[in-house]
Amino acid sequence: MAGRGGRMGLAALRLVPLLLVWWDSAASLNTQFGETSEYRTPNCYQYKLPGCPRDFSPVCGSDMSTYPNECTLCMKIREDGHDIKIIRSGPC
């Protein structure tokens, strides 16, 4: 039985490099198509709140809500106290 467990362990170790290659490929495809795996923290310090510019540059928040622009997302963060990140530029 000990030999069989050792062979299974070696087989599992052989799969690790394949999984790492797959993971790296998936990450590069996401980056290639403009999708990153990490959320971005909005730069709320650049806005003088309350009051935001009326420019329409939608962002998708980690609360799965679409905000007209980053500033309105920052207003929501200040009002509710939740840590909302930007998933991507554009609507959700």
Automatic annotation (TrEMBL):
GO BP terms: namely:
acrosome assembly; fertilization; male germ cell proliferation; positive regulation of apoptotic process; seminiferous tubule development
- Record's InterPro entries? Kazal_dom, Kazal_dom_sf, SPINK2
Cleavable signal peptide: 1-28
Cellular component, GO annotation: acrosomal vesicle; extracellular region; neuron projection
Kazal-like domain: residues covered: 38-92
Gene3D superfamilies the UniProt entry points to: 3.30.60.30
Entry GO MF terms: serine-type endopeptidase inhibitor activity
SMART domains named in the record: KAZAL
Among Pfam families, the record links this protein to:
Kazal_1
Superkingdom of this entry's organism? Eukaryota
Record localization:
Secreted
Q: Which UniProt keywords apply?
A: Disulfide bond, Protease inhibitor, Secreted, Serine protease inhibitor, Signal
The role this protein plays is:
In the male reproductive tract, binds to sperm heads where it modulates sperm capacitance by inhibiting calcium uptake and nitrogen oxide (NO) production.
Name used for this protein in its record: Serine protease inhibitor Kazal-type 1
Q: Which organism is it from?
A: Camelus dromedarius (Dromedary)
